[in-house]
Queue: 2 jobs
Job 1
Amino acid sequence: MGTGDEVVEIESLERSLLPESVNGEEETEADDESVLYSASFGEMEENFIKFQTAQWVLYSLLLVLVWGLGLFMLLYIPVRRYILRKDIRSRKLYLTPNSIVYKVTRPVPFPCFGVLKKEKHVLLPSVADIVIEQGYLQSLFGVYSLRIENAGVRRPPSDDVQILGISNPSAFRKAVLTRLSNMRTEVFTRQVSAIEDTPNLRIQSPAAWLSPSKSLKHDAIPHSGDFALLQKLEEVGSSVKRVQTLIEEQRSQTSETAD
C-alpha cells in the first residue's frame, strides 16, 4: 500500500512540474529568438515546384538510356512534387539579434518512413556576405538562390548555407547587412566609451620601482653627467677664445711689419 501511494505522489509531482518546464522552455526560446526579420517562401511555392520538376525531368531524360533508370524517375514525379511542396511549406528563415536561423522539415524519399528535420544557426559575426544567385534555368521560373558565406578562412562552397526558393532575397540580405553594421557600430562605441572611462595612467620608469636610496643614486647620475658636460663646454669656449686672441696678435704683427 505504501508503494502505491508513493507512485501516485510521484506521478502527481511529475504532472505539476512538466507543464511549468515546458512553458519555461517555450518562454526561453521566445526570449532567445526575438525575430528581427522573417523571410517568406509562400509566394514562390509554385515556381519552386515547377523549377524542381523541370530539373528532375531533364535528369530523367538523360538517364532513360541507362538501364531504364530515367523511366522510374519519371514515374516518381508525383511523389517528388509532394515532397517538394511539404518541404517549402515547412521552411522558416529569420534573423535574430545574434544569428540567422533556418528550419525545415521534409519527408524522406519515401514519405511513409517519416520526415527529416534540419535546423541551422549561423552566428552573425561569422557571416562574410549574403550572395544572391540565379542560374539560367532558375531565371526561366523566377527562382533565386541565397547563399550565406562564412567569414575567416575560406571554406569549400559545400560548407556555406544555401537556400533555394526565397521570395525576396534582396530584402533579407539588406536586413542582415544592416544588423551586421549596427553590431559593429555598437562594438566600436563600447570600445570608445571604455577608453574614455579609464583614468589616465602614469607610466613610471623602472627606477621608480627601486628602493629610495637606489632611486636617489639613479637621479644623481644624470646631474653629475650634466655638470661634466658643462665643464667640457667651458673648456672648449676658453680654448676658442685663446685661438681668437692668437689670430688677432698675428694679424697685428703682420700689419706692423708691412708698415
Job 2
Amino acid sequence: MRALIIRNVLAGVVAGTVIAALAGLGMSATAAPAATTDLKTVPFEVSGELPIYPKALYKNGSSGTSVRKVEARLVQLKLLEKRYQDNDFGTMTRSAVKKFQKSKGIPQLGYVDQNTWNKLSAATHEPTQAELFPPAPVVNGKKLDARCATGVALCIDKTTRKLRYVVDGVVKMQLDVRFGAVKTATREGSFTVGWKSRNHVSKLYDSKMPYAMFFSGGQAVHYSSDFAARGYNGASHGCVNVRDLGKIKVLFDEVNVGDKVIVYRS
C-alpha cells in the first residue's frame, strides 16, 4: 500500500511539472499540435519484391516449362544463348530479361512482369516443340540422352564407355572413359560441374587426378595414367577416367563450372 501511495505522489509531481512548463510556453495541456500533412495510402500489389514494384510472373528461382518458353523467346531474339534454355530462371536468364527491357525502354527489373511478358510475346513467335525441346544428338545412328540436347553437357554413356562433349546438340568431342568398380560405382543421373582442379591430387587415395572436373561429391572426370597404361583391365574409385591426355587438356579449358554432366546407360 505504501509503495502505491509513493508512485501516485510521484506521478502527480511529474504531471504538475509538465503542466507548469506548458503554461509557461503559452500552451494548453489539452491542446494537440495541428496536423500539417494528410497521410494517403497508395495501392500496390505485394509481389515478393519491394511493394512498389509490379508483380513478378517469372523471377530468379522460378522453374518449369513456362520459364523454358520465356527463355526460348529470348533465344529467338538472340538475347540468351541456347545453352541456358534449361527451365530454370537463373543469372543468365535474368541478364537477358534486363537486356530486353532496356531495348523496349521499360524498367530493367530483371524479372518478367505482365508488361514485360506482353512486349516479349509481341516481339516473338510461340516457340515450336523443336525450339523448346530440340531432338537429342545422334552419334553413329544412335541418340544420346535427351538431356544432352540443349546447352553444354558432358554426356557420359556407361554402356558405350564414351564421354561426349555436346554444345547445343552438336557433339564437339568424344573420349574413351572407364568407371568405378562395383563397390565404388560411378553415380548415374544429372549433375553439374561443381569445381575444377588442374593438378589435383586425391588425399583419400594419394593418387594424381589431373584435369579434374568434379560433379558429384568426390567423383570427377579426370585424366588417369593407369587407364592409359592398363585400359579396361582396371577401374576407378568412382570417378570417370579419361586416357587421352591431349583431349582432356582441351576439354578442361572448354568446360565451365555449372555445365551439365549427364551420366546414363544407353
